[in-house]
Design a protein that fits this description.
Distance between the termini: 21 Å
Largest sheet: 9 strands, mixed
Bound molecules: 2-keto-3-deoxygluconate
Order of helices and strands: EEEHEHEEEHEHHEHEHHEEEHHH
CATH class of the domain at 4-9 and 37-52 and 112-302: Alpha Beta
Structural class: alpha/beta
Shape: globular
Oligomer: single chain
Number of strands: 13
Number of helices: 11
Radius of gyration: 18 Å
Strand order of the largest sheet: 5-4-1-8-9-10-11-12-13
CATH topology of the domain at 4-9 and 37-52 and 112-302: UDP-N-acetylmuramoyl-L-alanine:D-glutamate ligase
């Protein structure tokens, strides 16, 4: 029985170290918000599975192998011979175009409520989802809604990272859908600026006001810090200083650090500190996923568990 099952699209990534131009060299990697969380949880010593769909193509095999090699159970990944694996290009050097997606009609965009049984069959303690999946297609949105509301025999906690991707859907289309999904989750992660763009909520307290019932709500405010609201309590933990190399994947790393602390029954402050520590490690690297946990993880964990 894994600690966590993470559900969502993972793409092949082509990374350009210089602004894209004819003849540029691209490095092939792997990236997907939810599998990034699964990989980081596995790196942090938890058991994690990833459920998705990939094409019957080299990219599908490459991304599945990359996730599996990092210790994640990929037995819940379906190969769809009729659709390609999604692809994205990171043209993130100064002056570059940013992140470019080639993922419409991808294999993962055909995720649907049919896939829910595979998720539940793991009997995991936690199911992690993100607001990227409902942007992929109506049927993928139905899967997320189903997993957040449907019956889990194992009594799984549902974790939802809002992850609004403006390149997939504009804020006006995403706002009410993402708010409705977040309201159904047990644990919600959202960026302060992201929430402001979606819901017009400038402060963490304003975000709490639109999501008052969520048992554990984490509002992340980039280099300033993160606030965890649970019941009437609010705990703020400042972000440590980091020399940022590339920010892609840092939100996923934060979620994995926080969820690791939650799975271990650590106090809220330790969960936030784990989130910052793991995010810091990804901010300092070019890749999207955690390679090795930073040393501070052990120190934070030494604080020990508390009863939940
Ligand atoms: O969170 C990092 C992700 O943005 C990246 O890995 C790609 O999953 C991705 C997406 O859909 O943007």
């Amino acid at each position: 029985r894994p600690d966590a099952v993470c559900v969502g699209e993972t793409m092949a990534v082509l990374h350009s170290a210089e602004p894209l131009a004819a003849g540029a060299s691209l490095t092939l990697g792997t990236g997907g918000a939810e599998s990034n969380v699964a990989v980081a949880l596995a790196r942090l010593g938890h058991t994690a599975a990833w459920v998705s769909r990939v094409g019957d193509d080299p990219f599908g095999r490459i991304v599945t192998d990359a996730v599996a090699e990092r210790g994640v159970d990929v037995s819940g990944v379906t190969v769809d011979p009729g659709r390609p694996t999604g692809l994205y290009v990171k043209d993130t050097a100064p002056g570059g175009a940013g992140v470019l997606y080639y993922r419409s009609s991808s294999a993962a965009s055909a995720l649907s409520a049919v896939d829910a049984d595979r998720v539940w069959s793991f009997g995991a303690r936690l199911v992690h989802l993100s607001g990227i999946t409902p942007a992929l297609s109506a049927q993928a949105a139905a899967l997320v809604e189903h997993l957040l509301t449907g019956h889990s025999d194992a009594g799984a906690l549902r974790s939802f990272d809002v992850n609004h991707r403006p390149a997939l859907w504009p804020a006006r289309a995403a706002a009410h859908i993402l708010l409705d999904l977040a309201r159904r989750a047990d644990v919600v992660f959202v960026g302060r600026d992201e929430a402001e763009r979606l819901w017009g909520t400038p402060t963490a307290e304003d975000v709490r006001a639109v999501l008052p019932e969520v048992p554990t709500l984490v509002v992340k405010d980039a280099e300033h810090g993160a606030t965890c609201f649970s019941g009437a309590d609010a705990v703020f933990e400042p972000s440590p200083e980091v020399d940022v190399v590339e920010a892609v994947g840092a939100g996923d790393a934060f979620a994995a650090g926080f969820l690791s602390g939650l799975l271990d029954g650590l106090p809220v402050r330790s969960r936030l500190r784990l989130g910052h520590a793991v995010a810091g490690e990804v901010l300092r690297s070019r890749g999207d996923t955690l390679e090795d946990p930073p040393r501070s993880v052990a120190e934070i964990r030494e604080g020990g568990p508390v009863s939940r």
